[in-house]
From TrEMBL:
CC per GO annotation: plasma membrane
Coiled-coil positions: none
PANTHER family found in the cross-reference section: DIGUANYLATE CYCLASE DGCM-RELATED (PTHR45138:SF9), REGULATORY COMPONENTS OF SENSORY TRANSDUCTION SYSTEM (PTHR45138)
Catalytic activity from the UniProt record: 2 GTP = 3',3'-c-di-GMP + 2 diphosphate
Assigned keywords, A-Z: Membrane, Transmembrane, Transmembrane helix
Organism the protein comes from: Lysobacter silvisoli
Organism superkingdom: Bacteria
Protein name per Swiss-Prot or TrEMBL: diguanylate cyclase
Enzyme Commission number(s) from the entry: 2.7.7.65
Transmembrane segments annotated in the record for this chain: 152-174, 181-201, 221-238, 250-273, 279-297, 304-330, 336-354
Length: 541
């Protein structure tokens, strides 16, 4: 592409006339001495007033090669082309009057059936609705067709990718309620509309084609909306308000400037507005990139995804700004690099956002587990076992199925702590919890109620069966001493058992089990006591 561009620059010369005389005067050569060489083959206009340009062939382009005048990246510009020996112009535009649907939207194409001899000129009357550069070239018809096919393939892939990612983001937002996905969706949709407005695909969208063809403000508004949505998404994604408040304040100021530019855009179509918008865009991108570098230095995982997705966009935007002010040419690969950067940036950010949400889910699950299970014994915490007990009681009442609870604690546990220390006491609890939990069914509930007290919930279990389970738990502890730090410690359990009665609450069931536990202690410890309310007596096992 670079070699082809250099050859075109050697064989063609582009000049500009800072005036808009009558076509007959220009074609007659009255203004030939007033044309000023442009230096390259890029048509750059800062005013909406029509201007004349002249493209002169330094070497011949024979008619046998079917040469075509190609004005690449025309965006919203309108052009009238006067060929040698032709009294009437050929109008061309991507949208509106002069539209040519036989070629792709990559360029305005005008056939040169008579070819172009060395020294001959083609005159262009350009009405620029955007300040973006438009590059002139002469290409054979076969080359035009080949590039058109490549252009359609690239644009279809890019725009489809952006649309699919936007739909996915919208679906995730609807399903998860996470605001980041909505902001990403809005960013992608605004970027997509911006690309189709300036890329010409808007001519296939009813209503939008007429709006864009008559007024460049629609595309600018979509671009400004994309900047606002993008800044909002990135600030939320990186949690700038909490992690980097100073940069967040600067980014907020940029957003206010963008909002002001949106209001100005409603009142004027001056190209200066587009230049100002691009400057604010670069400032905003610089802030976001700075925040990403700082976040990556702090090992913020989402900042790495941001840098991966936004670094190419930052570089491409800087190159686009340089082309806008004429610091460098308008190479053909930029036609595809910029939209591809949009698509890949959105895709990488979608992956990064999913990674962030997955990490948040893991943190939430870990926090939930820490709130549900006791770190020392592995049993459920008191709030968790109480909640599960209430649910089990409600289920037992509805299904009319039995339910029993076993309440036990370690005999003389305070003495173990006093004589051997709290570390030994903790190990005692851990071993007892392990031994007793291994004697239960998989669906039985096991929770640490407080200190050395353990509550066991036995669904589908009557009192007599529960007493057998409680006896099994007791014997699992006193059957052999506990081995802790090279010493053997004897341990035993006092156990209380109660079965759920008709319309009884969970609180009352626990009170009866606790009363049975107290009875076991009073009876000499290391024993099981069952409480049966209907008989108003205690059963000692």
């Amino acid at each position: 592409m670079l070699v082809a561009g250099a050859l075109q620059a050697q064989s063609l010369e582009l000049s500009r006339l800072d005036d808009d005389p009558l076509p007959v005067q220009v074609l007659a050569g009255d203004y030939d001495d007033r044309f000023v060489p442009a230096g390259d083959l890029a048509v750059r206009e800062r005013s909406r007033s029509p201007r004349w340009w002249r493209l002169t062939a330094r070497s011949g382009y024979p008619a046998a090669g079917q040469p075509q005048l190609v004005l690449r990246t025309p965006h919203l510009n309108r052009v009238e082309v006067w060929q040698p020996q032709s009294p009437l112009p050929v109008p061309r535009a991507l949208v509106g009057a002069g539209i040519d649907r036989t070629t792709s939207t990559r360029a305005l194409v005008v056939p040169l059936p008579g070819g172009l001899a060395a020294g001959q000129s083609v005159y262009l009357r350009v009405q620029a609705l955007t300040p973006l550069p438009m590059t002139a070239a002469i290409e054979p018809l076969a080359v035009v067709h080949r590039k058109d096919m490549a252009h359609v393939a690239w644009r279809t892939a890019v725009l489809t990718t952006m649309a699919v990612v936007a739909v996915l983001a919208l679906g995730f937002w609807a399903g998860l309620g996470e605001r980041s996905y909505l902001l990403l969706c809005l960013t992608l949709i605004a970027q997509l509309l911006y690309l189709v407005c300036y890329g010409g695909e808007a001519r296939a969208i009813p209503g939008l084609a007429e709006l864009v063809g008559n007024d460049p403000r629609a595309g600018r508004m979509f671009g400004l909306i994309a900047v606002l949505a993008s800044n909002g998404f990135l600030a939320h994604y990186l949690s700038l308000r909490q992690t980097q408040p100073k940069l967040m304040r600067v980014l907020t100021a940029c957003n206010l400037l963008v909002a002001a530019l949106m209001l100005v855009t409603l009142t004027t179509v001056a190209p200066l507005v587009a230049v100002a918008a691009n400057v604010v865009l670069m400032v905003g991108l610089s802030i976001v990139m700075t925040a990403g570098v700082i976040g990556a230095w702090r090992r913020q995982r989402e900042a790495l995804f941001l840098l991966l997705s936004w670094t190419p966009m930052f570089a491409l935007t800087a190159l686009r700004m340089a082309g806008l002010v004429g610091w460098w040419g308008n190479p053909e690969w930029m036609d595809y690099a910029f939209p591809v950067g949009f698509a890949l940036g959105g895709l990488v950010l979608m992956i990064g956002l999913s990674d962030k949400l997955q990490q948040l889910r893991r943190d939430r699950d870990q926090a939930s587990r820490q709130a549900t299970y006791d770190a020392l014994t592995g049993a459920m915490t008191r709030p968790a076992i109480e909640a599960r007990l209430k649910a089990a009681v409600e289920s037992a009442h509805k299904s009319r199925r039995p339910l029993s609870v076993v309440f036990f604690d370690v005999d003389h546990f305070k003495r173990i702590n006093d004589e051997h220390g709290h570390l030994v006491g903790d190990q005692t609890l851990r071993i007892i919890a392990l031994r007793t939990r291994n004697r239960l069914r998989t669906y039985d509930l096991f929770g640490r109620y407080g200190g050395d007290e353990i509550l066991v919930v036995l669904p589908d279990t009557q009192l007599r069966e529960a007493l057998g389970v409680a006896e099994n738990l007791r014997s699992s502890v006193n059957c052999r001493p506990l081995s802790i730090d090279g010493r053997l410690l004897a341990a035993s359990l006092s156990v209380g058992v109660a079965e759920l009665m008709h319309e009884e609450t969970a609180e009352h069931l626990l009170e009866r089990a606790d009363a049975a536990l107290y009875a076991s202690k009073s009876g000499g410890r290391d024993r099981v006591t069952g409480h049966q309310a209907s008989r108003a007596k205690e059963l000692v096992h």
